[in-house]
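ERR on first pass: missing label on line 2. Operator R.T. fixed the label and resubmitted. Corrected input:
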Amino acid sequence: MAVTRTMVVWCPDWPIVAGGHPLDEPVAVFHANRVVACSPAARANGVAQGLRRRSAQARCPALVVVERDRDAEARRFEAVAAALDAITPRIEITRPGACAFPTRGPSRYFGGDASLADRVLVLVAGVLADTGTVRVGVADGPFAAGLAARRAPDGGAHLVVAGESPGFLAPFAVGVLDRPELTDVLMRLGLGTLGDFAALDAADVIGRFGAAGRAAHRLASGLDEVPPATTEPPADLEVAVELDPPIERVDQAAFVAKTAADDLDRRLGERGAVCTRVLIGAETEHGERRERLWRHEGSLTAVAVAQRVRWQLDGWLNGAPATRPSGGLSRLYLRPDEIGPATGRQLGFWGEQTAGVERAAKAVARVQGLLGPRAVTMAERAGGRQPHDQLALVPVDGAALADQVHALDAPPSPPWPGQLPSPSPIVVHHQPLPAQVLDHRRHPVEVSGRGLVSAAPCWLAIGAEPAGWLEISGWAGPWPLDERWWDVAHARRRARFQVVTNDGRARLLGLERQRWWVDAAYE
Amino acid sequence: MASPELSLVERRARIDTIAPHIVPVTTAGQQLLPVVPALASLFPRAGLQRGTVVSLAGSGGALSLAFAVCAAASAEGSWLAVVGTERLGLAAVDELGVHLGRLVLVDAPPVDQWGTVVATLVDAFDLVLVVTREPIDAGQARRLTAKARERGSVILQVGRWAWPDAPDVRLDVIECRWDGLGEGHGTLTSRQITVTAVNRRDARPRRKSALWLPDTEGTVSRVTDAGAEPAAVTLADAG
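pass 2 clean. output:
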């Protein structure tokens, strides 16, 4: 069976475009303190994917730092996919920012690949309206088409003549396979390009690298990753959820998505199958129907399916008014569109405790369904001198829970001068509590501009209406903190004190503009 | 069947040969989550027994103690969920030895959802730390206890005891003293706390332990008579 001729539509730097940032300004999108995408202007300044925030800011001081918002990326991309619905109903979204469809039908209808590509470019450019660019690639198979799209100029197309995909792929470095463990071995074997790898005998590759190696070898040879299935997936694999009452908000949808995805995963697991492409569909209470295909290189796990369902529902419910369903969603269904045999997943091979991560991810998704996505957070290493600066809290992304575990395995950043020595306070008030500090003559304690205390602090009262006075039995300070003096709006001068009161507790106090605050407590 | 001619000694010997083959698959040791050696004496079996509820309260240091109790298990791969501490100092939690990559924080849920949220967490996490300010509904508390027993999780409740039934282990910090600060000099270096431990299934009266939390090295250790007092204290006294 011949490889499906495919067109890939790729919007470069999609996380930047989806965030509504202009591409000619230096912007970088971060996740877990690493650059995941950057604008061309930032790239010109040396910012690259995988850099830490501090290194990126060091290379480009004017860099605008944005946190990643995958929901928005998926939501905005739905508009692009919806525009292409006019050309073909077989659009499959690979990830927010890239989609693919088989060109056979549409290409004949519109008079060849070249005129089809022109049409697609016009349609997508109309949706993006100068906020971003689009590139199109046509080749045999989605993998080659994806690389062709990368070769295309901004706003243009790169067409690979039918049957010449293996030759087109040959000069690419093996790194484009996106399988770091495999590529590492191939490089050491002296196989630097896809052509070298494809020249190996398929049987030898399977013998040495197993199923994962075979899939990579097929890609490098210009074939589909898995041999296309000749039979349709059985209908009883479809999972449908009736939604009563109909849902209108995406936070309600998230929980349903999780349940349906788990159910699908279980059914596929019973058959020893994995799903590489899934159709997400929804019906509204007014009888409308929306469907969209999502593809994944490799196989879609339950968490990945749930995430895509959530994105898709978000795209429909919060999309452009023209495409938004007129009523709440009353039925949700997931149909595996393309399944293959499960070649086995090696769990916990690289030392992570996968079972624990998966259980935690499920519970997190459920709690986020109840309380909203921002209610569940995890720590992320940052830098700073104040107690609450050193470790930031970021909302948990269930699918990326394992990555977050690894991000924190990284060694802590070098010390910040002026950071408090350990032990650190375990209660940190993000809104410091007002306080009063008096000396032994019951006069307020002050700190002069040169950092001298007017008198030894003796009494402490906490709160706007203090319940009583605590006697200070030990104190140290002031430790001046002069932060961001170069920036008038964010500059702060604060004198910090550690005090122990006679109830045995220790606190961190701050004095700023003659007012005392309790910054933190050592409970 | 043992024949009547066998003597008691012979029967014993037979039992001894069979015994290793019929021990239960799950031994008590596997139902324990580890704790750091300094805290082992607070728990009847020198570790956190899965499926139990631990209460921590006291005049200062209860929250630190709770994380110190979780630290060893967290470092060995257990996940820890914390409910209801918006003002947590993560640096301190890190210093106490908790693996931050396996720590998930959940904002305090509204009262009507509290039970559902905590039950979901107990289902999936080995350790669930809850900070409560209101008493907990009796039925809800029993459901949570039952769920913890079924899933083998440990619930740690920090703050005034809010459950209708007595906890399995109850730790109270009755004394707390910081060292290292003088009159205008020094920094906080170490803290000495006295903890009483009461175990529900243990007939012995409460046990008292004195601990450094943390000591001058930043770790948890037991206060021994031979243990050197932190240098900063001597300095402070002299000043």
